[in-house]
Amino acid sequence: MWNTAPAVITPTLLSRLPDALRRMRPSAWAEANRGGAAVDSFLEGPCFDGGGNLFCTDIPHGRIFQVSGSHWHVVAEYEGWPNGLAAREEDLLVADYRHGVLSLDPRTGAMAPLLETILSEGLRGINDLILHPDGSIIFTDQGQTGLQDPTGRVWRRHADGRLDKLIGNGPSPNGVVLNREGTHLLVAMTRSCEVWRFALRPDAVVTKANLFFRVPAGTSGPDGLAVDAAGRLFVANPGHGQVWVVDPHGVATHRVDCTGFGRMPTNCAFAPDGRTLVITESQSGSLLAAEIPAP
């Protein structure tokens, strides 16, 4: 697949969800996504706010945590399935599979809906979102799409409320991120094991969407994405237990091997130092940290 095998980076344990906060019980989410097996948590959506505070989500139990060292504070707990997070100046944006795009005040835990439907039509199930510098919100509407039903969608909600459907034929659109220059969007297509790339225009026209990177086939394809200051793409790959490091030309140079902790690295985000990659490893219910070498 590659001319040169990607160099291995070994992560360390940053923090583990405390036993007191683990809830081993069945849930509707686990019934649909884990074959009915009870899970004590499923961590996703690592996110740093402007103050350097770290947050993450627990999908099946409807929780959003703020994590500081070994302390996990429950910021919000509600009847929802929170997945991706994005920080604004005063609040967090939440991609909730059941409820759409929500706003969360991390100081009070108060939540409010921002987008629940598209012209009265229900969403398939939002997975992840990002905040564009122009104030628009870009999010993936994944649901249960896949190779059997490649109709997953990528939407943009402008600051004035206008909506653009950027992609309508995605085989399970998942993680989403802008390139460093902010000119192109990269979207993880989980069930085809691909990352798509296309130019992001001010209008809703998308042309020449390109397969930028393909992860090895397996039980689960790419999930969350991140980009560093050097323009490298970081692709969380559950199933293989890796986070792939991909240069701006689409060549894998490194892999963060998470298998010492589990095989479910679901998402990743950079700490404020720009060098430390924080990874949600959902099989063990842990946050991992990896120091990424310079290009």
Straight-line N-to-C gap: 21 Å
Oligomerization status of the protein chains: single chain
Read across the widest sheet, the strand sequence of neighbours is: 1-24-23-22-21
What is the helical fraction, as a range of percent? under 10%
- Estimate the strand proportion: over 45%
Tally of helical runs: 1
Instruction: Spell out the helices and strands N to C.
Output: EEHEEEEEEEEEEEEEEEEEEEEEEEEE
Structural class: mainly beta
Largest sheet: 5 strands, mixed
The number of E-state strands comes to: 27
Shape: globular
How does this structure look, described?
The structure is a single chain. By secondary structure, the protein is mainly beta. Helices cover 2% and strands 48% of the residues. It contains one helix and 27 strands. The chain has a five-stranded mixed β-sheet, with no helix packed on it. Strands 2-27-26-25 form a four-stranded antiparallel β-sheet, with no helix packed on it. The chain has a four-stranded antiparallel β-sheet with strand order 3-4-5-6, with no helix packed on it. A hairpin with a 4-residue loop joins strand 7 (82-87) and strand 8 (92-96). The longest helix is centred in the first third of the chain and has 6 residues, at 28-33. The model has no long low-confidence stretch (mean pLDDT 96).
